[in-house]
UniProtKB/TrEMBL annotation:
Protein name (record): PDZ domain-containing protein
Region described as Disordered: 212-238
Ranges of Acidic residues composition bias in the record: 220-238
Superkingdom in the source lineage: Eukaryota
Taxonomic source organism: Prorocentrum cordatum
């Protein structure tokens, strides 16, 4: 977008927490964003889109600092008549501002390949929801392959509350214990060098009840914890 003095972007941004990216919550009928949408209907910016970069300013798990950097970039571009470029990601299910958030299946779906060749485990604790049987991440430690992935991939960070839908070629099928047994076998084989050097996860980030996104804090929410002991080696706790 080409900015000029006196113009506004014409959107409202929101962030529920510093650890969650900045989201477009409202687009006004005037401003650079509305003009962009008129000129580029095939690449419209929509409510629910997530902003991960503005020019050279990258979101790094601190939304307050990111918003300050975005404002500085826009002010600089407005003063010089320069360009401001945004990199956005569209969560699965975002189709338009009239669609209620609760009708979308989940906020985000992404893959993560966790290396296991060093012998380290994932460094997580998993839990199974009593109602749905879905296996989700209840805790992430400061060591392990999940932590290493997060350090290297801040835009696809694995978070507490993320649901594991697939591990390598093993799909979740409704029974958490059977799924965990298969997943543990895949992890152990990778750790021992008996198969590929890592495991690939397909993760889904659910919406919160209020329509926002992201997981919890890792505190006990009453769900059954699968392999929850601190010294457990089943794979639910590493």
């Amino acid at each position: 977008m080409t900015a000029s003095e006196g113009q506004i972007l014409g959107w409202q941004l929101s962030s529920s927490d510093n650890e969650f990216p900045v989201t477009v919550s409202k687009i006004r009928s005037s401003g650079l964003v509305a003009l962009h949408n008129q000129k580029h209907p095939e690449a419209k910016i929509m409510n629910g889109d997530v902003i991960v970069k503005a020019n050279s300013v990258l979101w790094r798990q601190n939304s307050t600092a990111f918003l300050e950097g975005l404002a500085e970039e826009f002010s600089r571009a407005s003063a010089t008549g320069g360009e401001i470029t945004f990199f956005l990601r569209r969560p699965v299910g975002v189709r338009g501002e009239s669609e209620p958030a609760e009708t979308r299946p989940f906020f985000k779906e992404f893959s993560a390949k966790l290396p296991m060749d060093s012998g380290d485990g994932p460094g997580w604790q998993l839990s199974a929801d009593n109602a749905t049987g879905r296996v989700s991440i209840a805790k992430i430690r400061s060591t392990g392959s999940v932590h290493a992935w997060n350090e290297a991939n801040p835009l696809d960070e694995i978070q507490v509350g993320d649901v594991i839908a697939k591990v390598n070629n093993v799909l979740w099928h409704g029974d958490p214990k059977v799924f965990l047994n298969h997943m543990n076998s895949q992890i152990e084989a990778a750790r021992k060098g008996q198969s590929q050097k890592g495991v690939t996860l397909l993760l889904q980030r659910p919406w919160r009840l209020d329509g926002s996104f992201g997981g919890g804090t890792g505190a006990d929410d009453g769900d059954d914890v699968v392999g929850g002991g601190e010294d457990d080696t089943t794979g639910a706790e590493e």
